[in-house]
Amino acid sequence: MVPIRKLRALWTSTLAFVMMSVTMISLAAAQAADSPEATISSLNATLLSTMKQAQTLGVEGRYQVLQPVLTKTYDTPLMTRLAVGQTWASLPPDQQAAITDAFRRMMIATYAKRFDGFSGESFQIVEISNRGTADKMVKTQIIQSNGKPVAINYLMRKSGPDWKIVDIYLDGTISELASRRAEFSTILKSGGPDALIASLKKQGDKLLSGS
To answer: Fewer CB within 10 Å, N side or C side of the chain?
Structure first.
């Protein structure tokens, strides 16, 4: 018969091992949930679901579905600051906030306008690679119904506990942030921050009108 003392010691060591294993599994699950792959997979799932309901939802309905997911997935404040450039530091907080809000609305409206139907498309993550010391590049494809892939790559950066998109490369090479930087610079030089806010609001309105 095994002595009581040995049974207690065995039980204690077993319990400690189980608790350590549960902690490690929980930590691994949390890390996986916060990974760039998990963020983009969640975005793709939302886009696919929205596309399948596109006609029922309409452009305004698609905007409402996409708004919370895209707000969480994109680091819009950072993207806006980078797109505005050096002028950003000289702007008062209320104008910074107004530009950020208008840019976020326009960006989400762009998604709502573009993802307007479903005909058998699918999404896949092709590769995740390091970009510099802190960023990750997540290469994805939209596989069209004819089998032709369309490349969309996401540059991601850690923001607090979450990985967020800081730039998107359409066709795999065209930087959305670079395009916006050129656009913003032209408007700011000709009309200042109020003109930029008005332009972004107008673009959002046009997209949400369905035109």
So the answer is: N
